[in-house]
Amino acid sequence: MQKRQLTPLDRLLAGANNALRTIAAPAGRPARKNPAADITETDLSDKQKTHSAGLMRVNHAGEIAAQALYQGHAIVARDPNIEQQMQRAANEEFDHLAWCEQRLTELNSKPSVLSPIWYSGAFAIGAASGILGDKWSLGFIAETEKQVCAHLDSHLERLPDDDGKSRAIVKKMRDEEEEHGENAIQAGAAELPAPLQRLMRLTAKVMTNTAYRV
Question: In b/e form, how buried is each residue of 17-50, taking b as 16+ CB within 10 angstroms?
Fold first, then answer.
């Protein structure tokens, strides 16, 4: 049976459903096992818990933005293979979102209250860059994942040594983000201009500094 081609309306409705699933509904049960599931919880101090929760809230906000970014790109993708690649990556990112939310609950904390802003902003950026063509859409993803990997590396350095559960989640996320970036490059990503790369780093800095606290 021939697969039905999605219309722009189909894609828009799918994007709206994903937004509701990401922001309004709890992350719920991820498709894959939490990498921290078999790690014993350690006795962290209140200060350590607060710091770990802040970092995991930043990671959760980043996964909110990642969902929106991939959905924004997918909704305007010209090549069906590129669209499918975006959707596969988004599914893995949703597991990341669920793992971060589960860890926040364990740390007696909550996700950022600004999640709708992170989602809407990233979706708009993803769709806007995708309109320029798939190679630029892929280029945006490749650069985003490069910066995300650097950001997660810094979290592995900053998380308490005793917080093995948070560290296991961040490590798994970091490995998969690197893979997503490499896949984008192999699919034909264009290299973004240096000024745009700097703007992306500045925007990410604003989000991370804000999400750490609220």
Answer: ebbeebbeeebeebeeebbbeeeeeeebeeebbe
Are the beta carbons of 128 and 76 closer than 8 angstroms? no
CB 187 within 8 Å of CB 85 = yes
Domain ranges of the chain: 45-211
* pTM exceeds 0.70 for this model: yes
d(CA 71, CA 11): 9
pLDDT band of 67, cuts 50, 70, 90: confident
Q: Please work out, in degrees rounded to the nearest 5, the angle formed at the alpha carbon of residue 122 by the alpha carbons of 136 and 196.
A: 45
Going by C-alpha positions, the residue among 162, 190, 201 that lies closest to residue 40 is 162
Task: Match 């609950």 to its residue by tokens.
Answer: 105
pLDDT at 12: 56
Contact criterion met (CB below 8 Å) for 44 and 106 = no
Dihedral pair phi/psi, residue 99, rounded to 5°: -65, -40
pLDDT digits (tens, 9 = 90+) for 111-141: 999 998 998 888 888 888 878 888 888 898 8
CATH fold of 45-211, please? Ferritin (1.20.1260)
How far is 143 from 140, CA to CA, in rounded Å?
A: 5
